[in-house]
């Protein structure tokens, strides 16, 4: 299982397939976003318990999308296991 955010287990009587890692925090455009993520379903905004919000996707023009895309391309680096680290392109 190499997909980010995917966990699974198979026993003789049960098959468990779970998608979603997090919650994580990413800062973009002066805002801090809490979200979960997976390769299969993508990111979703989350509440303080890590559950998806009623409207789990940022607006189309939200700075979240650019920051998330760069974070993924740069290897999903984390600080303290929850804070996303990403560098502006050209700043590496």
Structural overview:
It contains one helix and seven strands; from the N terminus they run E-E-E-E-E-H-E-E. With 92 residues, it is mainly β. The protein has one domain (20-85). It has a three-stranded antiparallel beta sheet with strand order 3-4-5, with helices on one face. The longest helix has 11 residues, at 63-73.
Give me the secondary-structure topology.
Blueprint: E1 6-10, E2 15-19, E3 21-28, E4 31-37, E5 44-45, H1 63-73, E6 77-79, E7 83-85
Antiparallel strand pairs: 1-2, 3-4, 4-5, 6-7
**What is the number of domains?**
1
Strand order of the largest sheet: 3-4-5
Which structural category fits the helices and strands?
A: mainly beta
Order of helices and strands: EEEEEHEE
The helix fraction, in percent, is 10-25%
> What is the count of DSSP helices, taking H or I runs of 4+ residues?
1
| Rg over CA atoms | 14 Å
Give the N-terminus to C-terminus distance in angstroms: 30 Å
Average of the residue pLDDT scores:
88
What's the overall geometry? globular
Percent of sequence in beta strands: 35-45%
The major pleated sheet works out as:
3 strands, antiparallel
Strand count: 7
Q: Low-confidence spans: pLDDT under 50, at least 5 residues?
A: none
